[in-house]
Specification:
Structural class: alpha+beta
CATH architecture: 3-Layer(aba) Sandwich
Shape: globular
CATH class: Alpha Beta
CATH topology: Inhibitor of vertebrate lysozyme, Ivy
Strand content: 25-35%
Number of helices: 3
Oligomer: single chain
Protein backbone atom coordinates (compact mmCIF):
# COMPACT_ATOMS: atom_id res chain seq x y z
CA UNK A 1 0.00 0.00 0.00
CA UNK A 2 2.85 2.38 0.83
CA UNK A 3 4.40 1.67 -2.56
CA UNK A 4 1.16 2.52 -4.33
CA UNK A 5 0.79 5.81 -2.46
CA UNK A 6 4.44 6.66 -3.18
CA UNK A 7 4.06 5.77 -6.85
CA UNK A 8 0.90 7.86 -7.21
CA UNK A 9 2.57 10.79 -5.43
CA UNK A 10 5.59 10.63 -7.72
CA UNK A 11 3.37 10.44 -10.80
CA UNK A 12 1.38 13.49 -9.67
CA UNK A 13 4.59 15.41 -9.08
CA UNK A 14 5.91 14.53 -12.53
CA UNK A 15 2.63 15.53 -14.19
CA UNK A 16 2.47 18.84 -12.31
CA UNK A 17 6.06 19.70 -13.25
CA UNK A 18 5.35 18.81 -16.87
CA UNK A 19 2.31 21.10 -16.89
CA UNK A 20 4.37 24.00 -15.52
CA UNK A 21 6.39 24.50 -18.70
CA UNK A 22 6.54 27.95 -20.19
CA UNK A 23 5.00 28.29 -23.61
CA UNK A 24 6.77 30.21 -26.39
CA UNK A 25 4.68 31.27 -29.37
CA UNK A 26 3.80 34.13 -31.72
CA UNK A 27 0.08 33.78 -31.05
CA UNK A 28 -0.86 37.30 -29.92
CA UNK A 29 -4.35 36.13 -28.91
CA UNK A 30 -2.81 34.53 -25.81
CA UNK A 31 -2.02 38.01 -24.46
CA UNK A 32 -4.70 39.78 -22.40
CA UNK A 33 -6.48 42.59 -24.27
CA UNK A 34 -4.84 45.29 -22.12
CA UNK A 35 -1.37 44.06 -23.12
CA UNK A 36 -2.28 43.93 -26.82
CA UNK A 37 -3.68 47.47 -26.63
CA UNK A 38 -0.54 48.74 -24.89
CA UNK A 39 1.67 47.26 -27.62
CA UNK A 40 -0.50 48.78 -30.38
CA UNK A 41 -0.49 52.18 -28.66
CA UNK A 42 3.20 52.53 -27.78
CA UNK A 43 4.83 50.30 -30.41
CA UNK A 44 2.55 50.56 -33.48
CA UNK A 45 5.21 49.68 -36.07
CA UNK A 46 6.81 46.76 -34.20
CA UNK A 47 5.80 43.16 -34.72
CA UNK A 48 5.85 40.52 -31.99
CA UNK A 49 8.90 38.31 -32.47
CA UNK A 50 7.85 35.94 -29.73
CA UNK A 51 5.61 35.68 -26.70
CA UNK A 52 6.52 33.56 -23.69
CA UNK A 53 3.71 32.60 -21.34
CA UNK A 54 5.26 32.14 -17.88
CA UNK A 55 3.54 29.28 -16.10
CA UNK A 56 3.79 27.78 -12.66
CA UNK A 57 2.09 24.58 -11.58
CA UNK A 58 -1.47 25.20 -12.69
CA UNK A 59 -1.67 28.87 -13.61
CA UNK A 60 -0.17 31.59 -15.74
CA UNK A 61 2.23 33.90 -13.89
CA UNK A 62 2.79 36.50 -16.60
CA UNK A 63 3.90 37.20 -20.14
CA UNK A 64 7.24 38.12 -21.69
CA UNK A 65 7.15 39.70 -25.14
CA UNK A 66 9.99 40.50 -27.53
CA UNK A 67 9.25 42.90 -30.38
CA UNK A 68 10.92 43.07 -33.78
CA UNK A 69 12.63 46.37 -32.85
CA UNK A 70 14.41 44.70 -29.90
CA UNK A 71 12.06 45.97 -27.20
CA UNK A 72 11.36 43.56 -24.35
CA UNK A 73 8.13 43.79 -22.35
CA UNK A 74 6.84 42.03 -19.26
CA UNK A 75 3.16 41.87 -18.34
CA UNK A 76 1.33 40.48 -15.33
CA UNK A 77 -1.60 38.08 -15.67
CA UNK A 78 -4.06 40.97 -16.13
CA UNK A 79 -2.03 42.38 -19.02
CA UNK A 80 -0.64 45.37 -17.13
CA UNK A 81 2.94 46.17 -18.08
CA UNK A 82 5.57 45.63 -15.40
CA UNK A 83 8.76 46.26 -17.34
CA UNK A 84 9.76 47.79 -20.67
CA UNK A 85 13.33 47.66 -21.94
CA UNK A 86 14.13 49.25 -25.30
CA UNK A 87 17.12 48.53 -27.55
CA UNK A 88 18.64 50.70 -29.06
CA UNK A 89 15.96 53.41 -28.88
CA UNK A 90 14.52 54.97 -25.72
CA UNK A 91 11.39 53.89 -23.90
CA UNK A 92 8.40 55.78 -25.39
CA UNK A 93 8.05 59.08 -23.52
CA UNK A 94 4.25 58.70 -23.23
CA UNK A 95 4.77 55.53 -21.19
CA UNK A 96 6.58 57.44 -18.43
CA UNK A 97 4.32 59.20 -15.88
CA UNK A 98 4.31 62.99 -16.37
CA UNK A 99 5.88 63.91 -13.00
CA UNK A 100 8.71 61.41 -13.53
CA UNK A 101 9.25 62.59 -17.10
CA UNK A 102 9.57 66.19 -15.88
CA UNK A 103 12.15 65.16 -13.27
CA UNK A 104 14.19 63.17 -15.79
CA UNK A 105 14.05 66.01 -18.34
CA UNK A 106 15.15 68.53 -15.72
CA UNK A 107 18.07 66.63 -14.20
CA UNK A 108 19.03 64.07 -16.87
CA UNK A 109 17.76 65.60 -20.10
CA UNK A 110 20.80 64.50 -22.08
CA UNK A 111 20.17 60.80 -21.42
CA UNK A 112 17.59 58.35 -22.73
CA UNK A 113 15.39 56.16 -20.56
CA UNK A 114 16.39 52.64 -21.64
CA UNK A 115 14.30 50.68 -19.14
CA UNK A 116 11.31 51.34 -16.93
CA UNK A 117 10.02 48.96 -14.32
CA UNK A 118 6.79 49.35 -12.37
CA UNK A 119 5.73 47.41 -9.28
CA UNK A 120 3.63 48.04 -6.19
CA UNK A 121 6.39 50.16 -4.61
CA UNK A 122 6.83 52.50 -7.55
CA UNK A 123 8.96 53.01 -10.65
CA UNK A 124 12.59 52.27 -11.45
CA UNK A 125 14.18 53.81 -14.54
CA UNK A 126 17.54 52.94 -16.06
CA UNK A 127 19.15 55.70 -18.09
CA UNK A 128 21.53 55.42 -21.04
CA UNK A 129 24.41 56.55 -18.81
CA UNK A 130 23.88 53.54 -16.51
CA UNK A 131 22.20 55.40 -13.65
CA UNK A 132 19.08 53.96 -12.04
CA UNK A 133 16.52 56.40 -10.69
CA UNK A 134 13.70 55.30 -8.37
CA UNK A 135 10.34 56.98 -7.75
CA UNK A 136 7.32 56.14 -5.63
CA UNK A 137 3.89 55.52 -7.18
CA UNK A 138 3.08 59.23 -6.96
CA UNK A 139 6.15 60.10 -9.04
CA UNK A 140 8.21 61.46 -6.16
CA UNK A 141 11.97 60.96 -6.38
CA UNK A 142 13.28 58.35 -3.93
CA UNK A 143 16.89 57.56 -4.76
CA UNK A 144 19.63 57.27 -7.34
CA UNK A 145 21.84 54.23 -7.92
CA UNK A 146 24.90 53.98 -10.12
Amino acid sequence: MKRLVSLVSIMLLVVSVACARDRVTQDVSLLPAEARDMIKTYFPKAMISYLKVDKSLFRTEGYDVRLSDGTELEFNTKGQWQEVESHPQAVPANLIPVSIKKYIDRYYGDYKVKKIKHNRRGYELKLSNGLEVEFDNMGNFLRLDD
